[in-house]
Amino acid sequence: MKANRPKRDVHPDLARERLKCNFNIEEVTNIIDGGKDKTLERKKIEDIALNNGACLDEIPDECLSIKERYENAIRKSCIYSNIVRNEMLEITGMENFESPVLRRTADAFFKDISPFMLHLGMFVPTLIGQSTPEQMAEWLPKALDMKIIGAYAQTELGHGTFIRGLETTATYDPDKEEFVLHSPTITSYKWWAGGLGKTANHCVVMAQLYTQGECHGTHLFIVQIRDLDTHMPLPGIKVGEIGPRMGFSSADNGFLGFNSFRIPRQNMLMKHAKVEKDGCYVKSAKHGKLTYGTMVFIRVTLVSEMSFNLSKAATIAIRYSAVRRQTELRPNEPEPQILDYPTQQHKLFICIATAHAFQLTSKWLWDTFQAVMADVRKGNVDALPELHALSSCLKAVSTSDALSHIEQCRFACGGHGYMLSSNLPFIYSFVAATRTYEGDYTVLLLQTARFLVKAWEQAESGNNVTPTVAYLNRTANTKRVVWDNTHEGIIQSFQAIAAGKIGQCVRSIRDRIKSGMDYEDAWLMTTVQLVAAAEAHCRAVLVNTYWNEMIRLTKSSSANVKTVMHQLAVLYLMYWALEKTGDLLKYSSVSKQDLDDLQRRYEELLAALRPNAVSLVDAFDLRDEILHSSLGSYDGCVYERLMEEAQKSPLNAEPVNPSFHKYIKPLMQGKL
Ligand SMILES: CCCCCCCCCC/C=C\CCCC(=O)SCCNC(=O)CCNC(=O)[C@H](O)C(C)(C)COP(=O)(O)OP(=O)(O)OC[C@H]1O[C@@H](n2cnc3c(N)ncnc32)[C@H](O)[C@@H]1OP(=O)(O)O
Ligand SMILES: Cc1cc2nc3c(=O)[nH]c(=O)nc-3n(C[C@H](O)[C@H](O)[C@H](O)COP(=O)(O)OP(=O)(O)OC[C@H]3O[C@@H](n4cnc5c(N)ncnc54)[C@H](O)[C@@H]3O)c2cc1C
């Protein structure tokens, strides 16, 4: 079903906004995309995927039943996969199946989520990261060609965070050279895996490996769960969907139980550890946590995913705010555009800056990830703890910040932001899940904290520490940093806050141990502070990386692009400095006067950015098909679209609903 979209003239308010722009939008788009060639490639791919209108729906997703929504999502997933397989991968190259462009175009097809998302998002990366070359040759081509469709089944009903506590067992039987998968309890049922409920015919399963009578901890196995022809669950498999949830409505998140289900020995993913034919277990020579690799990979990709989602929300809210007028400031004067209110600018401009901060940081994180993985392939795992610490905190903070900024975008759109047709509730509920999945916020920050405490102890004893915590070598023994309101000064203050908080955690742990606690209890009692310290470290990394990358990427930009990119980065620094005034007062010499000055400069910066606001979101270059929003379309025809979407409500299909005759009328007549 293709929907025809009427072409409309651009709303005069938006047209006027665009005339005010003083920088080259395309140059900024190129920076966000990672270069002019990347922008051209993206546009070419978007044209292929979206120009034929296959992504559009006649009936909005939200007006469909759960079953219809799933079926429509499958229909479109198949169309989309075919386009990816036949046309898009030819341009990106097969090896770039995880290209952000594919994610971006997928969003035009799915207002919610594709049931195939986890196939490409986690199943395929697990095959790549965890298989031997022979296994890769066997499974990967089939997976990329959609001959098999997979899910990632790790979490169980009883355990998500604590992977070592998973209960599914895989017991090796050397006589038959098979593993026997079993779910011994109700809590051992796999739970949550996207695409598992109704779509996947294969999945990667994490299970406790038993061989020669010994448990060797969790390992990954590839398991066929459904017949490829009939799609019926195989004997010994109990599989289904987990039921309605806050978002992810079309992802058929599933449950899965095994009743002594047998798989060949070759189905254990054996890149890092293996079981020989006779049942002998050979441990990973490199690092015990390499089986967690897919999680690290997704945590890394989520930072750019957050930038993308935030840029969508910011585009919707800023275009709407340029069109929406509300409240007379002075009698008989026209009502201002709500974007003219500094409070509105305060809600929204930080969203643009944060989308840039996450995008530039995500590219840097991706390069770091690639470099560490290249080392791991050569047998050097020295940088793995730092990568784990970094990807954990950046995943936690970027998802959490994106979520609260997206909610601000919804607030900024008043009542209309609450409409599903605005798309803001969908974006919000999608991003709300990211704070939990792939490692809960608190849990991941505590992982980073473990690394930071060790780094602190090294720095304290005069040893050099790894690059992302190098600031500890400078600041570990400093009481308070001297406040300086330049960007360098603000970045150093964030580093001083992080160092101060980590140091305080170390002292708290030591004091508690001195007073008789064992290390575990002392750590536990300090976890509220440890989470705050890891967050502070992450903010220090973010401000530093964003600033450095912005300078590097704008070196050859035109003067006005340099200025506007610089303004956004300064806004980001100031916003967070003002959010953290308590910490600044504690760990720097900042005075009340300095903070008042900072507040004034921040407000001036909002005013300076105001004329470019609409063009800055135009620079995200998000097509209307991707935005799916009655409030955010390029033409700004908000009211027409709201009315048009309202007409599609199933309740408007008939002038009188049958419930009137069945219930209301009898009630009115006293006949009920
Ligand atoms: C086309 C591409 C598209 C991309 C699109 C992106 C969008 C995708 C949409 C996807 C939608 C949904 C996906 C959802 C998928 C999932 O949620 S899958 C399930 C994910 N589950 C989790 O993340 C669980 C979180 N828990 C953990 O990670 C671990 O259990 C935890 C780290 C908390 C602890 O693990 P333990 O095994 O108990 O480890 P410990 O004994 O505590 O630690 C020992 C040391 O090992 C270090 N460690 C832990 N993990 C790692 C790692 N990954 N790498 C390196 N090191 C690690 C840990 O810090 C300890 O170190 P220390 O002893 O302190 O030195
Ligand atoms: C939409 C969605 C999609 C998902 N997709 C998949 C998938 O495809 N495959 C898959 O395997 N899984 C998937 N998951 C599961 C997801 O990875 C887990 O839900 C997540 O890792 C959190 O684990 P949990 O649910 O066990 O939470 P819990 O660990 O039970 O957390 C509950 C609370 O306890 C706190 N807590 C837990 N442990 C600690 C601790 N050590 N210290 C301090 N506080 C702690 C947490 O901070 C949290 O506040 C998905 C989840 C969602 C919501």
Automatic annotation (TrEMBL):
Protein name: Acyl-coenzyme A oxidase
A cellular component term, taken from the record's GO annotations: peroxisome
Subcellular location(s) of the protein: Peroxisome
Designated gene of the protein: LOC112051252
Signal peptide as annotated in the record: none
Keyword Amino-acid biosynthesis: no
Organism: Bicyclus anynana
Pathway(s) where this gene product acts: Lipid metabolism; peroxisomal fatty acid beta-oxidation
TM spans (from-to): none
Recorded family membership: Belongs to the acyl-CoA oxidase family.
Residues that, per the record, bind FAD: 155, 194
